[in-house]
Amino acid sequence: MSKVIVVGGGxxxxxxxxxxxxxxxxxxxxxxxxxxxxxxxITGKGRCNFxxxxxxxxxxxxxxxxxxxxxxxxxxxxxxxxxxxxxAHGTETKVERGNRAFPASDHASDITKAxxxxxxxxxxxxxxxxxxxxxxxxxxxxxxxxxxxxxELNSDHVIICTGGLSYATTGSxxxxxxxxxxxxxxVTKTRPALVPLNVxxxxxxxxxxxxxxxVKLSINYGGKKxxxxxxxxxxxxxxxxxxxxxxxxxxxxxxLEKTGTLDATIDLKPALSYDELDARILRDFNDNMNxxxxxxxxxxxxxxxxxxxxxxxxxDDDRQINxxxxxxxxxxxxxxxxxxxxxxxxxxxxxxxxxQGGVSxxxxxxxxxxxxxxxxxxxxxxxxxxxxxxGGFNLQxxxxxGYLAGLSI
Length: 409
Prior knowledge:
By secondary structure, the chain is α+β, with helices and mostly antiparallel strands. 31% of the residues lie in helices and 25% in strands. A 6-stranded antiparallel beta barrel has the order 13-16-15-14-17-18. The model has no long low-confidence stretch (mean pLDDT 96).
């Protein structure tokens, strides 16, 4: 039996402690907050979309950074295993649209309760309000940690599960990334991911609060389409947000760093071709020749978009349908099929669901989560250069890598 210290009591840390305890090790779980799983409480708007009930193949398709690295972890502990685990520890679950799994109660606290029950079963020593200052070494081997106050805790193995940089108020302040750099490990560039986007145009904030459904968002770079997906999005006082935008942010972050801005368009009528939309608008115009353009546009657009369209097309507010030329009608259709805006940056970490980048997976054995360069040391969860789209995939990465790390000691 080995003495194992797990640093960080989030999703990966709790599962790593459970996996190590399951193998009969003496496990101490150190968490600097006053409770375990603080970030879990805010996931899924407090409901906790704790995994995605899809196949392993579909799961890996939703991983943005280093999906191949996750083969061993996800086939060792997949979403079905996680659902079974939660239910076996007293929490009923349900699966909703998009295979998103939630606790049946819609209370995130029930997920942490199930995990705490599991930790108790394998006699994990949980120490809250205990901040780790550094990892201790002897002869190129991790031999424990130093906690606040200078006290040293010795161990045979240390698992670092300190998360990334997103939602720092939950304790994700980059400690593990800092330690990894001090140990000489490669840490890839980090950036906010699954995060809203800032937009350059002044007309975008005028639509603040407007939610769009069944639209297509396209983002381009140097003539190449970086992102082109259907779904829902939202206009805000600073730019855009919503499911489509959050997913896009994980794809475009590195390109934004190169260029500073990216061109984006929204197809507001993706179900209609250009010709079909032209025919519809022509019918509307013919039926309302003596009405104002703005009143007819309200049949095509949400009301808060109408003044913006009038502004972009440089029309007067009282412009009548009978004065709209064929060329102007073509410009209107173009605007409906490709409403333009310029992305000027990602929002901050405090608004990001996850961190992109982290401890390079080249430093880590994917079959064990052990550090290749340093004995007695493992990493799991968001501290690693692993991230995925929304839908429970990021939490499943944490469960799977944490479980494999604990099981492999």
